[in-house]
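[Q] Does anyone have a clean structure-token version of this?
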Amino acid sequence: MRTTQKRVCIFFPNEQNLDCTVTATARGGEVLNLVLRQLAVSDLQVLGLAVLRDNEYLFLDLERKLSRYFGNLWNRASAMVPFILFLRVQHYVESGRLILSSKVQQLYLAELRRKVLHSESRHQEVLFFQLAASALQAEVGDLERRAEEEEEDDDEVQGKEKRLRPYFLPEDYFPTWLIKRRGRDFLLQHGPALHGELSGVTRSQAVLQFIKEVSNLQDGPVTFYRMKREKKEPRRSILLGVTLKGVHIYQDLEGKLCLLYDFSWTDIDRLTFQGSRFEIAAVGSLCLPKLVYYTPSAFHSEHVMRHLSDSHRLHINTRGAVSYIQQLDDMQGQTASRSYKEAYICDTARLAHRLRSNSPTSSMSERSEAAETATARSKQEEHEVTEFELCVDEPVESFVDNPAELAWLAELSGDARVGLPFCWEAVAAEMKRVVRGRADKGGFVD
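[A] Here you go.
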């Protein structure tokens, strides 16, 4: 007997969950509305609902019925059996200031923290120390202030001894392989030193710094989809990664990821799928053959294609806002503590280059050149449209962006309102007011 009510459980990135009841004909959008109501926000922006299918997360088409994702089990299961969905990061951003809600930003941060702990980017060891320092500053605040508070709580223990006591667990900030490589004592000894270099950085600024730094982690801000080289291949050894600025293709060799191709969005001429066959055609200037891979099913291919299309559109629609935020960061100087921390863990040549670029004599000219380069590139790419060809049984072409609808944000500093699809219209229209207002105060719009 079919039940008219279904129980759905949504797991959040911060390890909380939401239990709700929906009708048997409910669609993804109805569940999304329940999540918005629970979080008391108007838009999730970078987050999306996903279902675990073939051991991978597929983001829901909010217009489809949930029964399409759970198959026959949806009709046969009793009302007491929960169907599991996940609230996950669907689109990564280059700046945390693009996320207008503090609650959404915290969920975004929670998933990034978890991805750092599971990262296998062993060649980026220095970056993990930077990320740990930013995470500690965001959670604990200034190390000196914490030491003073501890001294006041226990007058019998000398302040120096108190400072030597560990105040964090390496397992909460470093991946397992790094703990084994360096040892817990090493991390407990040097972690506070890097944390101390961020003294004076507010917790909200530390969160923004963490989000910015994690974008440099090779397997951090990326969503992976496994595919096969050959249709009858027993194992899916190819990983297609949807990133901030394009697509990465990896091969899994005995648990180690080897980067095969690194495509920016402008490097890709066409993405096509027909059934489980998935094709990537690079622009002619790269002189690469068409790449052909196989997904588990046409259903899988369709959702991967939708994620790619939405990610590309988001990149196009927000790059002007990102450029504007970068200009604000450059003008503010990003505080001296940032340079001190890099001096502790980076080579002197890199530090000297950074100091020269920040010097009063060179900063204005270099910023002017950077602005001119960004403007020229924006004008050049304005006329380039990446084509996504959607094929199931019969090939059907679908463009990601309608050139008539692409309103560039190069004039974001002006007074004209810029119209954009999705929730990013709010980003463009309110960026000047929101970013300037919370650059120092750390405020949000919920």
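[Q] Thanks! Anything notable?
[A] The longest helix spans residues 298-332.
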